[in-house]
């Protein structure tokens, strides 16, 4: 990654060596896997943040705009957004507040539930998220930094971990159309 000073030694490999030396060999591989994933997330987020910065977007703001942009009519209930983004409701509320302030999203009363809110992407929000998506695709997603089919293998491994951790269930088969 440009701008990052390379360390003379891999600190995660050194941590593994220390784990083994201190008698924690049975935990060394797991510690290495967990800290490697966390570090990889930091590196990828740095690329994402650098790509979104010119658009004035954080990843949270981008995700909300992209989610709304994917909907058929550009709107959805706030509760649905919270469930799909898998983020604490307070974080979603703060993100939406900033998007509303910047006139990228509008908040409306839910037509059937007076306690709930509907979120709707504005034309400015839609234009911004399309430009930001093009940049993310070009600068991050098309070349994430994995060789060959490593990205596919990694996604399978992590998806299995997520499923086994209760993050999602296998989709139920859809009935045949009538």
UniProtKB/TrEMBL annotation:
Domain spans labelled HTH marR-type: 30-163
InterPro entries assigned to the protein according to its UniProt record, in alphabetical order: HTH_MarR-typ (IPR000835), MarR/SlyA-like (IPR039422), Tscrpt_reg_MarR-type_CS (IPR023187), WH-like_DNA-bd_sf (IPR036388), WH_DNA-bd_sf (IPR036390)
Example GO biological process: response to stress
Domain of life, source organism: Bacteria
Transcription keyword on record: yes
Gene Ontology terms for molecular function: DNA binding; DNA-binding transcription factor activity
Name of this chain's protein: MarR family protein
Lineage of the species this protein comes from: Bacteria, Bacillati, Actinomycetota, Actinomycetes, Micrococcales
């Amino acid at each position: 990654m440009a701008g990052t000073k390379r360390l003379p030694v891999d600190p995660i490999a050194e941590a593994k060596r220390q784990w083994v030396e201190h008698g924690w060999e049975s935990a060394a591989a797991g510690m290495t896997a967990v800290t490697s994933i966390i570090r990889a997330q930091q590196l990828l987020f740095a690329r994402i943040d650098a790509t979104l910065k010119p658009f004035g977007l954080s990843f949270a703001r981008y995700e909300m705009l992209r989610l709304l942009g994917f909907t058929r009519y550009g709107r959805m209930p706030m509760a649905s957004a919270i469930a799909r983004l898998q983020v604490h409701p307070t974080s979603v509320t703060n993100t939406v507040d900033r998007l509303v302030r910047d006139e990228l999203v509008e908040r409306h009363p839910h037509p059937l539930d007076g306690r709930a809110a509907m979120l709707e992407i504005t034309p400015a929000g839609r234009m911004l998220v399309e430009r930001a998506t093009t940049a993310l695709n070009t600068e991050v997603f098309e070349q994430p930094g994995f060789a060959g089919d490593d990205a596919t293998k990694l996604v399978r491994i992590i998806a299995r971990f997520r499923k086994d951790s209760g993050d999602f269930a296998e989709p139920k088969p859809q009935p045949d159309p009538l």
